[in-house]
Amino acid sequence: MAATLASCLLPLLATGALAGTVPADPGSNTVPEPPGYRLDDYRAPVPATVAGGRVLHTSELRALLDSQADGPVGEKTHAILIDVLPVPRRPAGMSPGTPWMPLSHTDLPGSVWLPEVGRGALAPAIESWFRQQLSELTTGDKGRTLIFYCQPECWMSWNAAKRAAGYGYTNIIWYPDGVEGWRAAGLPLAPATAIPPPEASPGTP
Q: What's the predicted TM-score (pTM) here?
């Protein structure tokens, strides 16, 4: 009986037909890069690549950051970490007088939090603000390394990385593992405070 059961299960295990029994193959991601930006459904499987940039995962990013740790703080050759997670929005329909306290956010130590810049379509004021922030952060050096991230399976960091490449920045890194990937590796996070962007027009995707 046991031999018969095993002979039935082996083909299923080989094909992954029993959910959870076969680990996902990291190289099996076949999500294509869209020709433009992702405009909606931002929390969804993402491509393995980003046009105009390269991809680093947690161990690789940690090695890069560790290699810079001995340099002076603010060293102009250091990579700039940019968190693009949106700030929580006050729930629609909530009475203006109702107290509301958004959850606190943590991100990779030393990061700059630029919310809203990873949306698929940016209001002109936010796009201008994003360009200005990048110019100030890099002191006008478009070869400076910029690392964009948010959460795992988050298209906003992909959008932001591609957008920065389109602005002419030549050393773009996308970190798709995001805050939760860093946390899962047991690496430290720090309290984050967003740099407030200009008000977006209602309905901006």
A: 0.79
